[in-house]
């Protein structure tokens, strides 16, 4: 018999991959549980339809719109102005505050402090209007105990323990909140949807309903989202496209420091971070977090180097620590914490090839102080100097900072915002800054920095060898970068 010419009957809801047979995993994006039966396509008519619309649009007929289109100059934008949350660090990430009708997705690992942060923000928002906190993971009494502990009790803060979408919308209709907090979206289920709570279909239906209510009644909505074991937001990828703002709440569960990072923001920048300190009495803001990422020691230790990362418009001093040890294994260990493993591996290869430091047979451990996560390329030079320091057992002076990206040819490349980085290092008392050649300590739109007596000194380097000699000797001489000759200087030709 001839094979049927019917089209594919199943389609992935994430990437659109089509297949004739159902599969539990998408063959294109490898997502689980996203292959669903596709609706039968409607036949297309080539003749013009109502209103003169040809092709696929001809099957639809136009209706009178609910409101006519107006000129953009006649639209009043004051109603969509951001309202401060009462937490300056959170406002910095959001771009000024919460926008009426905006839907914010806050994701983070279990126990990082998402509920504590939102309770604190809800207490401040309750001073200007009703706030509805929907908890699907705890009872109302448990949330009240936490609110008592952190001082987040307010008369306009309403609690409800619900897991049904219809009941949730009923609470919204009664309370009429200005701020709605749903903790978490994975625990809410919609009736009539044949899927378990937290599944792809349920999350999509619940989120679509909450977004429609938020836009219709101008209710600022914050959804708490779970994360998978690799750190990505649980649920369909379309969830991040539907919401207006996506925030990641990061931090080590065993440390007090927390960071809120904007991944997507339709109303503000996406490169800002907010810093908080999570303690027994709740969560507090950290407006000046530079000193939290440094280990305060009296004497320098080999294997450490300080750098200045730029998160948005905020420079942060952070310390990189490495440990190089003889490996008893055939395949040496490479362990990182707070750093990009691929960049650490690249720096190791550059040191071995361009600086003649053979670390390939050694165990390497690299981490940051305070649990901060450093991913920008400007940290490469600090990683390289700390690895070289640990390998040859020479300490980088504690008053030295290193800023720059390391290329595969061993060159040190320029980074953005060198003026702000150097100014922050000078404010914290550092006396020498190693920067890429041509930086001039001034970026686009920045004033050139002048090194005054008693201030910080800026040394520009061109490659990793010159940076190592400058860091270990403090003299601008041509380096001899073998492991045995790093303490010497070669005479200039």
Please provide a written account of the structure:
By secondary structure, the protein is of the alpha/beta class. The protein folds into 3 domains: 8-37; 83-287, Rossmann fold (3-Layer(aba) Sandwich); 292-490, Ribosomal Protein S5, domain 2 (2-Layer Sandwich). The protein is 23% helix and 23% strand. It has helices at 88-94, 114-125, 140-150, 165-175, 200-217, 238-242, 341-354, 380-392, 418-427, 464-473, and strands spanning 10-12, 18-19, 35-37, 103-108, 131-135, 157-161, 179-183, 220-225, 245-250, 257-265, 273-279, 282-285, 304-311, 314-326, 334-337, 362-368, 400-402, 405-406, 412-413, 432-436, 457-461, 478-479, 489-490. A 9-stranded mixed sheet has the order 6-5-7-8-4-9-10-11-12, with helices on both faces. A hairpin with a 6-residue loop joins strand 9 and strand 10. Helix 7 crosses helix 8 (380-392). It is globular, with a radius of gyration of 28 Å.
Calculate the terminal CA-CA distance, rounded to whole Å.
86 Å
Which CATH class of the largest domain is shown? Alpha Beta
The low-confidence runs, each spanning 5 or more residues with pLDDT under 50, are 1-5, 442-453, 475-493
Let me know the average pLDDT: 84
The CATH architecture term of the largest domain is 3-Layer(aba) Sandwich
User: The CATH topology of the largest domain, please?
Assistant: Rossmann fold
Rg calc: 28 Å
Proportion of beta-strand residues: 15-25%
Number of helices: 10
Strand order of the largest sheet: 6-5-7-8-4-9-10-11-12
Q: What is the fourth-level CATH superfamily of the largest domain?
A: P-loop containing nucleotide triphosphate hydrolases
Considering DSSP H and I runs of 4 or more, what fraction of the residues is helical? 10-25%
The biggest sheet amounts to: 9 strands, mixed
Overall shape: globular
């Amino acid at each position: 018999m001839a094979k049927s010419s019917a089209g594919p009957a199943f389609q992935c809801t994430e990437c659109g991959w089509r297949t004739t047979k159902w599969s539990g995993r998408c063959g294109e994006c490898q997502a689980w549980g996203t292959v669903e039966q596709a609706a039968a396509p409607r036949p297309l008519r080539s003749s013009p339809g109502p209103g003169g619309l040809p092709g696929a649009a001809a099957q639809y007929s136009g209706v009178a719109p609910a409101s006519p289109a107006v000129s953009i100059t006649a639209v009043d934008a004051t109603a969509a102005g951001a309202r401060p949350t009462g937490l300056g660090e959170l406002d910095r990430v959001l771009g000024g505050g919460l926008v009426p009708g905006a839907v914010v997705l806050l994701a983070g690992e279990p126990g990082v402090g998402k509920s504590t942060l939102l309770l604190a923000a809800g207490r401040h928002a309750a001073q200007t209007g009703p706030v509805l906190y929907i908890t699907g993971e705890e009872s109302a009494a448990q949330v009240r105990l936490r609110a008592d502990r952190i001082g987040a009790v307010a008369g306009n803060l309403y609690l409800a323990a619900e897991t049904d979408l219809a009941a949730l919308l009923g609470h919204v209709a009664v309370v009429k909140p200005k701020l709605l907090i749903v903790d978490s979206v994975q625990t809410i289920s919609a009736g009539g949807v044949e899927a378990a709570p937290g599944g792809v279909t349920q999350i999509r239906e619940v989120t679509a309903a909450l977004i429609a209510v938020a836009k219709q009644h101008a209710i600022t909505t914050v959804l708490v989202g779970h994360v998978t074991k690799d750190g990505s937001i649980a649920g369909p990828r379309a969830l991040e496209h539907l919401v207006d703002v996506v925030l990641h709440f990061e931090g080590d569960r065993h440390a007090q420091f927390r960071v809120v990072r904007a991944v997507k923001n339709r109303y503000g920048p996406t490169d800002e971070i907010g810093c908080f300190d999570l303690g027994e009495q709740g969560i507090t803001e950290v407006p000046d977090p530079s000193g939290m990422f440094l280990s305060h020691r009296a004497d320098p230790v080999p294997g450490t180097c300080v750098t200045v990362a730029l998160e948005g418009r905020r420079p942060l001093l952070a310390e990189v620590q490495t440990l190089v040890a003889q490996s008893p294994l055939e395949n040496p260990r490479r362990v990182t914490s707070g750093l990009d493993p691929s960049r650490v591996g690249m720096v190791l290869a550059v040191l071995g090839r361009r600086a003649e430091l053979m670390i390939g047979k050694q165990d390497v451990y690299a981490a940051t102080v305070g649990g901060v996560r450093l991913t920008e390329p400007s940290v490469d030079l600090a990683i390289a100097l700390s690895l070289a320091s640990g390998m040859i057992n020479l300490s980088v002076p504690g008053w030295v900072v290193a800023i720059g990206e390391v290329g595969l040819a061993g060159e040190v490349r320029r980074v953005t915002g060198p003026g702000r980085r150097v100014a922050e290092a000078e404010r914290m008392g550092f006396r020498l800054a190693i920067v890429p050649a041509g930086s001039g300590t001034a970026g686009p739109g920045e004033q050139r920095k002048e090194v005054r007596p008693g201030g910080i000194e800026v040394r520009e380097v061109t490659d990793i060898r010159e940076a190592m000699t400058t860091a270990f000797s403090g003299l601008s001489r041509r380096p001899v970068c073998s492991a045995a000759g790093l303490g010497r200087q070669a005479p200039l030709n």
